[in-house]
Specification:
The protein has 269 residues and is mainly alpha-helical. It has helices at 11-18, 21-30, 36-61, 66-86, 95-119, 127-158, 160-168, 173-198, 206-213, 218-251, and strands at 90-92, 263-265.
């Protein structure tokens, strides 16, 4: 194995890399896509956010007490739950709470199991491991939750006649909604499954690449990536099922009636 040292990136090199976004802007202008301003805003926002989080993480990694580290993890989870709902087109009362409960339960359970039972970090709340692992899990779980929730609410509204017919014929609310629930969960998990299918052949994951660039042995980086992908797959499945189950409970009342009147459509910015 090569003994090549980690190569830091200076600010001027970062500025040179930013010039690559000119390709996107030029394409947008040439084809009149109307994305030039969005690209500039997104690029600037991403850069500022990542530079700030880099400074914050230096402080976070220096912490050696569980309470502040868990508080930061809770803030991250809350923001992820809000982002998941904000990506949906239809919402109902309590949807933000449902999203928080689902993503919190799934991400903390899976990340905790990985830290304590698999990687065996000492102490288990070591921020250098907990925060990055939780962040990767949250980023994928919020995507799965938003896709599953969006598909389920759309299916409930658009398939109202079929559902009410099944209910009128004597089907239970679970029987009437089963196909919608299964379809929503399938949609929520498809991105993760697709990513796993081509990983290592078509794509090299960012986390694994980062470890290799930092000097880690490729075999070790690969093992970490496999653990993380299994974490993501498990947490996404749990989170998607949780949010759809909670939505099902809100949109089908205790008398077995479909309550599409509780759903409202919103315009996403």
């Amino acid at each position: 194995m090569s003994d090549a040292a980690y190569i830091p990136i200076s600010l001027w090199q970062l500025a040179l890399a930013a010039a690559l976004i000119v390709v996107n802007i030029a394409l947008s202008v040439a084809l009149r896509l109307g994305l030039a301003r969005s690209l500039l805003v997104a690029s600037a926002r991403m850069t500022v956010q990542l530079l700030l989080i880099g400074l914050v993480l230096e402080w976070v990694f220096a912490l050696d007490q569980a309470v502040p580290i868990l508080a930061i993890a809770l803030v991250m989870t809350t923001l992820a739950s809000v982002a998941a709902v904000n990506r949906t087109r239809r919402r109902f009362a309590g949807v933000y709470w449902d999203s928080l409960v689902s993503i919190l339960s799934a991400s903390f359970l899976v990340t905790g199991f990985a830290l304590v039972g698999i990687i065996r970090v000492e102490p288990w709340y070591d921020a250098q491991y907990l925060i990055p692992l939780l962040g990767m899990v949250l980023g994928n779980v919020l995507n799965g939750i938003s896709l599953a929730l969006d598909r389920f609410t759309e299916g409930v509204v658009n398939g109202r006649d079929r559902i009410e017919l099944l209910l009128a014929l004597g089907a239970s609310r679970w029987e009437a909604a089963h196909d919608l629930i299964a379809d929503a969960l399938r949609v929520g998990m498809i991105p993760t499954i697709n990513a796993m299918m081509v990983m290592g052949i078509v794509s090299l994951p960012g986390m694994m690449t980062g470890q290799i660039l930092a000097g880690a042995a490729p075999v070790d980086a690969v093992r970490y990536q496999i653990v993380i992908m299994f974490m993501i797959a498990s947490a996404t499945a749990l989170g998607a099922f949780g949010v759809v189950a909670l939505a099902f409970g809100r949109l089908f009342d205790e008398r077995g009636r479909l309550r599409t009147d509780r759903v409202r459509r919103v315009e996403r910015s």
